Records
---
Amino acid sequence: MATASRVILGLYQGYNANACLLVEGEPTVIVENERHTRVRHAYGPSAECVEACLRGAGMTIGDVDRVAFCGASDLDTDYAYDIPASGKDGNCFPALAGTRLLSADCFRETPIRVLGRTLPGVIVEHHVAHAASAFYTSGFQQSVILAFDGLGDFGRSCLILRGSGTRIDCLESVPLRIGLAFKKAGTHLYRLAGTGFDAAGKLMALAALGEPRYLGAARLFLDHVDVSTGTREWLLPELGKLRQGALSDLDSSPARDFAASLQAVSSAATLNLLRRYLRPGDRLCLAGGCALNVIINRDLLRELPIAALYIPPCPHDGGLGLGASLYLRNHIEGASSRSNGLDPYRGLTNLDGVGSKAMPCLGGPNGGPIGVAERGAEEQVDAAVRLLAQGEVIGWCHGRSEVGPRALGNRSLLADPARDWMASHLNRRVKHRESFRPYGLSLREENVGRVFGTDAVRSPYMMLAATMTGNWCQALPAVVHVDGSTRYHTVSQQANPLFWQLLAAFEAATGVPGLLNTSYNLPGEPIAESAADCLAVFHDTAINHLFIGRLHLSKG
């Protein structure tokens, strides 16, 4: 067993590049590069991101004991962190023999140079880092772990692992390419340039509008996505109308039906895989970009005899720096850093101290005036409830930013979910996105059973979808998708006391047990991070009220 490191820096430089600082085993700061560059899914190494991560914890590179770097492919590539070739035979990445892993240890020790300092480091395999980000923050002592996404190291897309204590052991590498299938289908049908992972999320939303009429074509595509080009050559003849860009045409029933078919086939394939490993009463952790698919997650909860399901707030590549650092601390050093769920408010910027003097130029859009009122927490809640009850959409930006792609009440746009026009208004006037895209519901933990039934589970990171019971679907139409499901976020008083207080006050005033919650950002941009980002969104978005720090800003 290695001596436990006090400070570990976790790094990932690929898609959704990020840095994480682990202090005494606890995640202290987690920063995605996109929050600095304002380029969504920013790729590549960033000294600024690393420096910001250290600065957020009041540290310098001199305080770091070891570095955990996620990314095992192309080991001789210049990662801009100066990683030399390995001189050790004992710590190596597992080779593949068919689908079986030959080694349980998926890391390699090597010195890594960061910000001018050479530190002892470890390179951790991509999907193992995903698994670590989930298991070591789940609070579970034992768990089956599924890590699945588009593509990781050595061409892998899916690993089955088992966590026990401080160890994670690989069981099998499976050629299940759900992430790649959604990416390629979405990219082709949306005619998008670039990576296409945004299109994958849109495809998931569109699936609810269709019927799974093309299951054979979807299975064929999923099985052969490695060799497909994303064009019609992988489609059966009856799908010939699925031209490039077809999803831009909402009257294209073949496009909707193919999306529904791919979703159904993906859920079934995931269920069949996990049934081979799970025993009744097992716990399950999910990680990787496919863990953002709330429909798969819902189906796993419905169909599998598991005791609990855990998905971290950053299951995508934005959590790989976290996962690599936790793997080093736990599996390699043998020092436990267990927590019962990850505090998602581990972003860089804290807005609680923002007052009128701390804000940048407060000129309104087109030079119009912006009203500024400094209010205490109670006054902010009262003012926000009045506006929400009147049908206003408000910006709600407080505390440290959320980790991951889902707004969890600290960088959020909020609205009354009981108004049947609200989702359409948000899509057309505020978010500027497709009309079929749904919105999530934030509600207090105490209300989850009342709204979703007694079998409903907590969803602290908005990673689950469920169907509301009784008359709630009719009462809260703005957060109900066309298939009757709602992506939901449960808020505890301990995790976010101010947001919990707002939800309680809104319910007391209106009888509505939650709020529509969506991310506070401009179209095509990451979630706002700093006070300047929040003000830019306020200027350029059709909302009239922003609550940020101690301020209530209103457009004249």
Note: The chain is about 30% helix and 20% strand.
---
Amino acid sequence: MKNKKAASKTLDFFQKTLLLITASVLFWLSNPNIFFEDGLGWLAWFNYLPVFFLIRKCNIRQSILYGAFYGIISYGLYGYWLNTFHPLGLIIVCIAYMIICALLFVGLKWADLICIKNGWLLQFVCVCAYEYLKTLGFLGMSYGVTAYTQWKFTTLIQICSVTGVFGLNLLVIFPSAFLFSLISKKQAKQKLIHQVDFERKSHISAYVKKEKALAVNSLRLTYICGLTWAALFFSTLIYGNYVVRQPVSKKSVTVAAIQNNDSPWKNGIEEYSRNVKNLIQLTEEAQSLSSEIDFVVWPETAVAPSIIYNYDYGNDVRRFMLISQLLNFLDENNAVFVIGNSHEVEFRGAEKQYYNSALVFESGKNVHPPEPQIYSKMKLVPFTESFPLKHTFPSLYVRLLNGGSHMWQKGDEYTVFNYRGLKFSTPICFEDTFSTICRQMVLNGSRCFINLSNDSWSKSTACQHQHLAMAVFRSVENRVPTVRSTASGVTCIISSNGKIEKIAPEFCQAFVIGKVPLMNENSQTVFTKTGDIAGMAEAVLGAFILLIQTIVVIIKKILDKK
């Protein structure tokens, strides 16, 4: 008897572990990864299926443990490239998702317990709510949101211009919940039928008849939800097919996006001079191929020394000479330049402030002396660009600085630039992974995103494609094109429908030249007008149903005691 119990426990542990590993690997492979640079997006439609079965097998305590391991394994595999920057970065992410996913699994288990027949629907809503909530706050990250796996499915993702990425999330996550309900309820129904057959021999009880009826009704709800999903899915494809066929503006400007492929870790005036020389050379090569280039874009912090500060106040002669050489080149050029720069501001009697900025220059207007329009990054990367708790945890702050982190000041304005008929904004690096930031830029009047990024530190194609996948959605949501100039990839031009029209090879010096249409200034998508209503609704609905069901369970227990 003891041997049977031990064998049963071993089998149960093996099944749970297998489900945990399967769920983690599905999450990993569905996103851009080390083996498949674009990700296997079709796997995302089943990402949470093993999670739901794992939850069913666990009790509350076990759900905490397995949730913690799911967070560590999934995001450890997904964000392995953080280790290249600093092992502490990967450790922080794994710890964060260990806690987040442990809480998620507890919530899913509680939903399974309080909604015996249709807990799968509540679990589905809770998963969608979790994916929205994890993008909020200081530690908020959009990396890993399920819908981003569909970035190559151009027709499907057009619905994001109405619902945003979290509306698409509903479509992509639902099949996992549906299949879980279908399989588990069919199994339960089969068991019930065997029970009925057994009871029939000894006068079937009314209780068993009632349970059978409930099981059948519950399965009907699953089918109804499945048919509803199918109708929404095909309607989404019809809408997407219609949208991608719509003509775009014939008026356009020509843009050259430069990829300099320089190391972000090397410092010193020799390195800075070499970087600028490479940028100028690549620009001249691009302009030799096309004399119609209106805009030239250089990546994030492509010019490391502050252009304005070193020209106006700097006492380093070599830096001043480098900046003067750069400004002379800009002033002799006919294109508008968008340049990533480490912008420094010094106030009398105060500590110097550093900003990760985009500077816009136009010959004959704001080059000599340098008085460019400026946008400074507003959403800073936690722990590597911003750490508000530096006085609370000074030792950790010192470790972050020693690990290569560069702390910046936060910008305070969603700047919209207007040159040669193109109204554009410049989300810097991972700012284009947040729909709220890009949406606000469009609300302010922007009709094109020019993203300046530097993911070269990751030395990972997977990292760069994960970032690119999210950038695609910003164009679709707001129906505006995107130009990406990156240090090492992915430098490209994305249409307003999310189609990648021009792309440069990664980890080499390159550039792309392409036309960017001048979009209608009066047109705004439903998403641009309303924002992430789908995500907010998922979070509110999940919390509300959990609360109501919990209250109902408590009341029932109180009444049963009486």
Note: The longest helix spans residues 206-244.
---
Amino acid sequence: MRSLQFKISVSLFVVGATLIGISALRLNERSKQTRRTAMMALAFAEGSRLSGMSQHLLRRKVSRAADLELSYSSTNKDLRLGLIVDGSDIVRHATMQQMRGLTLAETPLADVGPVLKKVRESMEGRVVELVRGKRLVAVFPFWEGLAQAKGSVILEYDLEMPLASASAVALHALLAQSMALMGGCLALWLLLKKVVTDRVEALVCQVQGMSLESEPMLAMGGKDELAQVSQAVRLTHDRLRHSEQRLHQIAATMRDVFWLAPDASGSFAFVNEAYATVFSRQGARLATHRWDWLHAIVREDRRRCLEMLRSLRQGGPRQEIEVRVASPEGHLRWVRCRGFAVPGTEGHECSVAGIAMDVSERKTLERRLLDTAENERRRIGMDLHDDLCQRLAAALMKTGVLQSALSRGGGNNQEPLASELANDLSEATGIARGFARGLAPVGIEALGITAALSDLGDFITRGFKIPCRVECSASDTGLTGESATHIFRVAQELATNAAKHANPTWIEISFEMTPQEARLLVTHDGRPYRPAHAAIEGMGMHLVRQRLDALGASLSFHPSAQGEESVSSVECLIPLSLNPETATVEIA
């Protein structure tokens, strides 16, 4: 019933039936009007004839001839009653003999009185339809005898039967037209089925069969519109199949994960074969568990993934984040995810697509580079401390001896110069020791990070003339190796930046540890740092973020007490359970 063939045939049938109905009404009305006109003409002719004949016969007093003329008129089956009345409305002759001698009021034609009065006044015959569609009356006057009395001929005809006969004729014509219409609709149905419906069904099957796996169906022959559409579909199928094959080959050979999350909630994400290698999970599970990929990401990084997806669903700009992916055995991978929005239909959310790249090797190289740079700094610091500082100390002692000798020998002119040289050497020694302590903090190796942070606070206080307080509320015996060095360098960079750029009156460095994580907090009362409006970060903050990536740590800026968008404290959280030097990863 939804086919084009059915709709066209039904439409044609409805239009044809409507036209036939209108034509039938007009034909019926026309037939009735024609029959009514014919009856009126017949009544007029018969009334005229009988009135003239009655005037002639009654003057000659030939009454039997008048009865004979009425009997001739009664042969018409539509004539109900015929009367010849005199001037006193007495029935002289009638088609029904029992009505002779009765007055007109005593006959069935008593209601003709008003018409008869008008006819006698004008002496002109009339044909009147007393009851619409039922009774037709013809009244014609004549002069009766020498007395000049006004007689009349009254004829009553039945209209119901003639009009019903006319309607029957119209009905027969309607039936003939209806049969012709049904035959035309049936012929059109068969023609449409052969020319349109079957070919459209073949075209639909051809379109539905368009896929990468199936071979293209043969196109229709011919040069009509459907054949051209079928040939265009075949050509499009060939191009689409070729494009899909190339895309499939590219996706299959990619080492990076290509993924696409449709906007419909019932659809599942598409991933290429590299997904199983990078995420250590089967891509087929996404068909039934569309969020299976999220369980492979470390719990602390899931929120950033969801925030990125939410922003891209709303049509946000392209984003890039780095997350950690854990295998079922507890091994970590660093994955860089680049996502972008794919506009969908109006009123729907955007689809999201992107590429996930395994950057674990780069992260390992960066960590090794940091360790190598730290070792080189430590070596330079030790060389400064063990070589240059010792030489400067020896030169300082010698200048002291020289100053004493000059003062005993009376070299008053040379004594101030020797004293100035001793002061210069003393300042140079202090600067060299400061460089050495900065490059190679001895406290980390000997006493741990607590002592190193305390020494950092003293350095900030002396070097920048800003009070710096250090609070360590837990033992750091469980934190060893390069991790302690990275934490110290992060604290050093954050505190130094605050002293240089924030113009504070005090700085506080707080460090505490639990079995699960370490927490470093640098607070000051200077000019707040605005991360949302900051320009491109300098080398110091870039190195801080590299060290945080090496530790698997996170950095957050806390708003000030005034509720502004700016921040006056920086918090660093180091999850010890995710540190490469500690236990394996806990997987959800």
Note: Residues 532-536, 580-588 have pLDDT under 50 and may be disordered.
